[in-house]
Write a structure and sequence with these properties.
Blueprint: E1 6-8, H1 33-39, E2 44-46, H2 56-62, E3 73-74, E4 79-84, E5 90-91, E6 97-105, E7 110-116, E8 122-128, E9 134-137, E10 146-151, E11 156-164, E12 172-179, E13 186-188, E14 191-193, E15 199-206, E16 212-216, E17 222-223, E18 227-229, E19 232-238, E20 247-255, E21 263-269, E22 277-279, E23 282-285, E24 290-297, E25 303-308, E26 313-314, E27 318-320, E28 323-329, E29 337-343, E30 346-352, E31 360-362, E32 376-380, E33 386-389, E34 403-406, E35 409-412
Parallel strand pairs: 3-6, 14-21, 23-30
Antiparallel strand pairs: 1-2, 4-12, 5-6, 6-11, 7-10, 7-12, 8-9, 8-11, 13-15, 15-19, 16-18, 16-20, 17-19, 20-21, 22-24, 24-28, 25-27, 25-29, 26-28, 29-30, 31-32, 32-35, 33-34
């Protein structure tokens, strides 16, 4: 994009009246901006719409075809770009050189322009199209950098001057324009009734062409990753509702990345009827410690929780829809037993064999003298039966202190 730009000050009685009732001094294209800059005076920006008030001969003289001072590069909020000052750029009256950038701004919008270079002393200017608002800055960026932070007074075109404070500085620079666009958002429609089985759906987000947006869903059963610029479509997915009750959720859309101007799209979803079954419903296991599993079958979204009904069985967890439940049952030295696990209103039955263990020790009594004595006791029981030896007096030592065994074993003391 190219635009004829005139940064001018002063007035001359030989010139006709121009826009906003100000006299413009049109001696040389851009000739007076440096004097304005050095003298800390306001400068005026003219664009082609202002030229109607300037004599034809002056327009012909100043709008030279191919003049680098006629060029301005578009830049957007959030954009960083690289440039370089050279002796082919627009030459100002103090023999320094400048580049121009343009962007569209909104009234009340806060923007920051940052110019950084490792080899030139950066100088920035910011002005609106009419010239009623101007800001200039040299050193507040730190080092060789310049920074302007401003609140834009009106909606319209704004021009950035990228310049050097010193003469004959021809090196590269980085220019960054940042700030949040003043964006408004609306959604269409604003609500949706989603079927119980769920699915993928969409709605429209309306906003200005330059405005970024993002969608979020603060509910576990709703997912979306939609983002965009300007008016667009938000796509979202809702899981099947097996909760047994109607649920209300939402998708929220706002500016990116700060998430302002939030709009809420409301969702209502009925529940499917939840039914549960187990496969298998029971199991027969030996007396030894056993780990196993079974399946629960339920519609997607239908919740369930596991509960063990026995101190000998460990099993827990929860979920929705189809799932697998794992359990562990302890070794059974006693009689056969029946234990259960409850899940989804259903019962899983565990039939465990028992060893019906009996125990005998030989000898059943030992008489010892006053001196320390070592000895052995034999434990007799059925194959597979477990046992543990413990002491009931502190002056008796078992080696080791707790002993476990199966069938016929020996314990030393």
């Amino acid at each position: 994009m190219f635009l004829a730009l005139l940064f001018l000050v002063g007035w001359s009685t030989s010139n006709a009246q121009v826009s906003n009732e100000k006299k413009k001094f049109v001696d040389k294209f851009l000739s007076d901006i440096i004097r304005t800059k050095r003298g800390n005076k306001p400068f005026v920006l003219l664009t082609p719409k202002d030229l109607s008030g300037i004599p034809t001969q002056d327009i012909t003289e100043i709008l030279t075809v191919g003049d680098p001072c006629d060029k301005a590069t578009p830049i957007s909020i959030g954009q960083a770009t690289g440039g370089a000052l050279s002796n082919t750029d627009c030459r100002l009256d103090d023999n320094s050189y400048a580049d121009f950038y343009i962007f569209n701004g909104n009234q009340g919008q806060q923007v920051t322009v940052f110019m950084n270079s490792s080899s030139i002393d950066s100088y920035l200017g910011l002005a609106n199209e009419s010239g009623t608002f101007t800001v200039e800055e040299d050193d507040s960026g730190g080092g060789l950098s310049a920074r302007i932070s401003a609140t834009l007074p009106q909606t319209g075109l704004y021009i950035i001057l990228a310049n050097s404070a010193l003469l004959n500085e021809f090196r590269g620079y980085t220019l960054r324009l940042s700030g949040a666009a003043l964006c408004t958002y609306s959604v269409s429609p604003t609500t949706a009734d989603i079927p119980a089985i769920g699915g993928t759906f969409s709605f429209t987000i309306n906003t200005q062409p330059e405005c970024h947006w993002q969608a979020v869903a603060p509910y576990s059963y709703i997912t979306t990753n939609s983002t965009g610029i300007g008016t667009g479509t938000v796509t979202y997915t809702v899981a099947q509702n097996g909760s047994g009750a109607i649920r209300n959720g939402s998708v929220r859309v706002g500016s990116a990345p700060l998430f302002t101007g939030e709009q809420i799209f409301n969702i209502t979803q009925p529940s499917v009827g939840c039914t549960y079954s187990l496969s298998p419903t029971s199991v027969n296991i030996p007396a030894t410690q056993t780990t196993g599993s079974f399946s629960i079958i339920a519609p997607a979204g239908c919740p369930w929780t596991v509960q063990s009904n026995s101190a000998f069985v460990s099993s827990d967890g929860s979920g929705t829809g189809n799932g697998t439940i794992t359990y562990n049952i302890a070794h059974n030295n006693g009689a056969a037993r029946v234990e259960t696990i409850s899940v989804g209103g259903q019962t899983f039955t565990i039939n465990q064999e028992g060893l019906n263990c009996t125990y005998a020790v030989t000898p059943i009594q030992i008489n010892v003298g006053r001196s320390e004595t070592n000895g052995t006791v034999t434990v007799n029981t059925q194959p597979g039966c477990t046992w543990m030896a413990t002491r009931n007096q502190l002056w008796i030592e078992i080696q080791p202190r707790q002993v476990q065994g199966r069938e016929q074993s020996h314990t030393k003391f």
